[in-house]
Write a structure and sequence with these properties.
The chain is 78% helix and 2% strand. It is built from 11 helices and 2 strands, in the order ααααββααααααα.
Length: 258
C-alpha cells in the first residue's frame, strides 16, 4: 500500500470517528475542527501505518496511532497560525480567524487531549509516546521564540518528535521488539528532520553557505534514517521506508540519499 492509499484510509477513519470522539460540539466549533483536520498530507499518520506493515502488522492495527498523530499535528497548526498571525491554512481561513483566538486555542487543546486519551486506551507506551511528542513540540515552539538560530534543535523538537512518535506507534502496533521500536523511533526522528529541512530550503531559500550546510545535514539525516532500518525485515514496506525522504519533495531540492 502506498502513501496515497494510507492517506485515504486515514481520511475515511477520521470522518467516521470525529462525530464519536467530539460529541456535542457547537456547529461553529465542529466546522472549524473538521476544516482544520481536512486536506492534510497525512505524512505522519501514513508513516505509522507503513512502519506497522513493515514490521508485520495490519494497517488496521496502526490506525489509532495514525489518527492520534494527525490530531496532534492539526492542533499544533492551530497554535502556530495564531502565534504567527497566519490567516489562511490550506486555502481555508485559519481557525483563529473563524473563531476567536481564545476558542481556537481551546479547540486545539481539545485535540491534544483527545489524542492522549485515545492512546491511553491503547496502552501505557502508546500514551507516553504521544504525550512526549506534544511536550517536545511545545518546547520547540517556545525555543523558537527565544533563539531562532538554534535551528537543528528547534526542528528536532517541533517536527522530528512527532515523526518519531508516529514511527514508534507503528512499531508498537506491530508488537515489535524493544530494539525495533527504538530503531523505528530514531528513523522517524531523522526523517522528520529531513522533511523540515527540505521544506525550509524550498520555502525560504537561504544563502549559498547556509544552503550547502542544510543540504549536507539533510543527506546525513537521511543516511542515519536508512541505517536505522538495517535490522528490519526485507520487504516492500521497508524499501518504501528507506525511500521515504525522497518522496517528500524529490523535485524541490537537490538532496539525494547516497
Amino acid at each position: 500500500m502506498g502513501l496515497t492509499a494510507y492517506k485515504a484510509r486515514i481520511d475515511a477513519e477520521l470522518e467516521l470517528r470525529l462525530p464519536e470522539w467530539f460529541p456535542g460540539l457547537a456547529p461553529a466549533h465542529c466546522e472549524a475542527l473538521c476544516g482544520n483536520l481536512a486536506d492534510g498530507k497525512r505524512l505522519r499518520g501514513s508513516l505509522a501505518c507503513l512502519m506497522a506493515e513493515a514490521l508485520g502488522a495490519r494497517v488496521e492495527q496502526a490506525l489509532p496511532g495514525a489518527l492520534a498523530v494527525e490530531m496532534v499535528q492539526a492542533a499544533s497548526l492551530v497554535h502556530d497560525d495564531f502565534v504567527d498571525g497566519d490567516a489562511v491554512r490550506r486555502g481555508r481561513p485559519a481557525a483563529w480567524t473563524q473563531l476567536s483566538p481564545r476558542r481556537a486555542v481551546l479547540l486545539a487543546d481539545l485535540l491534544f487531549a483527545t489524542a492522549i486519551e485515545k492512546m491511553a486506551g491503547a496502552g501505557t507506551r502508546e500514551c507516553t509516546s504521544i504525550a512526549r511528542a506534544i511536550a517536545a513540540m511545545a518546547q520547540g515552539a517556545l525555543q523558537e521564540t527565544l533563539d531562532r538560530s538554534a535551528y537543528r534543535s528547534i526542528i528536532r523538537l517541533k517536527t522530528g518528535s512527532l515523526f518519531a512518535a508516529a514511527a514508534r506507534l507503528g512499531a508498537l502496533a506491530a508488537c515489535a521488539s524493544d530494539a525495533a521500536v527504538e530503531a523505528a523511533t530514531q528513523f522517524g526522528a531523522r526523517v522528520g528532520e529531513v522533511y523540515q529541512m527540505v521544506d525550509d530550503l524550498a520555502d525560504a531559500p537561504p544563502g549559498p553557505a547556509l544552503r550547502l550546510r542544510m543540504e549536507e545535514d539533510a543527506v546525513l539525516c537521511a543516511e542515519q534514517a536508512r541505517r536505522a532500518l538495517d535490522a528490519f525485515p526485507d520487504n516492500p514496506c521497508t524499501v518504501m521506508l528507506a525511500e521515504l525522504p525522497l518522496t517528500f519533495a524529490p523535485r524541490r531540492s537537490p538532496i539525494r540519499m547516497r
